Amino acid sequence: MDGVRCSNTHTCLAGCSQVTELVLDNCRSSNGEIEGLNDSFKELQFLSMANVELTSLAKLPTLSKLRKLELSDNVISGGLEVLAERCPNLTYLNLSGNKIKDLGTVEALQNLKNLKSLDLFNCEITNLEDYRDSIFELLQQITYLDGFDQEDNEAPDSEDDDDEADEDDDDDENEAGPPGEYEEEDDEDDGASDLGEGEEEEEVGLSYLMKEEIQDEEDDDDYVEGGDEEEEAESVRGEKRKREPEDEGEEEED
C-alpha cells in the first residue's frame, strides 16, 4: 500500500508499515496535537497535515524516512526542534500559514541538514526587514525559500513536469490513433495496389500480344501480296518476250 487518505486523525493506522504517503488534510487534531500516528509507519516518505488545527508537534512519531512534510494552515508557533529529532531526513518543509513570528523560532531548523526547500508563506516572519536574506543566512543548507532561490529562480516542480509529459503522451496517442489501425489500412492499400498492378500488367500483356499477332498477320499479307505482284510482273515480261519474236516474224512475212 503506497498512499492513504484518512478522514479522522484519531483513526489508528497501526500495521500500515508499507505506507509511503499519508494525507490527513482538513481533519481535526486532538487538542491541537497529532493523534493516530505512531512509529509503525517506518516507510513513510510523504506526510500532509494541512489545516488540521495543529498547535504542537510534540506527539509526532519518529519517521526516519520522511522526506516531505506539509504543515500549512495550522497554528504552530514553536517547538520545531522536534523535527530534527524525529524526521532527520526531511528535504521539504511547508510551514506556510502558521504563527511563526521570529528568526529564533526558525533557528531550530538548522539541525535539519538535508533540508533543501522551506515555505513560510503567510507567516508573520515574512514581514521582517531583509526576511529572505536573513533566512538564507540562518539556514545555509536550504536552496529554496517560498519557492525561489537566492537569485529569484523558481524551484522546479517535478509533479507539474510529470503531468505535462503525460498530457503530451496522451496527445501523441490521440493524434496517432489506436495502435494497428493504420497498419491494417496500409496492408489493405498495399493489397489493393498490388492487385491493381497485377490487373494492369495482365491487360497490357494481352493487348501487347494481340497487337503482335495483328502485326504478324499484316506482315504476312504484305509479303504475300508482294510475291504475287512480282510473279505477275514476271509473267507479263515472259509474255512480252514471247510476243516480240512473234511480232518480228509477222513483220518479215509482210
UniProtKB/TrEMBL annotation:
For this UniProt entry, what is the primary localization, expressed as one broad class?
cytoplasm
Query: Which InterPro entries does this one have?
Result: AN32 (IPR045081), Leu-rich_rpt (IPR001611), LRR_dom_sf (IPR032675)
Give me the stretches of Acidic residues compositional bias: 148-204, 214-233
> Is Repeat one of the keywords?
yes
* GO BP, sorted A to Z: chromatin organization; regulation of apoptotic process
Per the entry, what this protein does is: Multifunctional protein that is involved in the regulation of many processes.
- State what protein this is by name: Acidic leucine-rich nuclear phosphoprotein 32 family member
Native organism: Malurus elegans (Red-winged fairywren)
Q: Lineage of the native species?
A: Eukaryota, Metazoa, Chordata, Craniata, Vertebrata
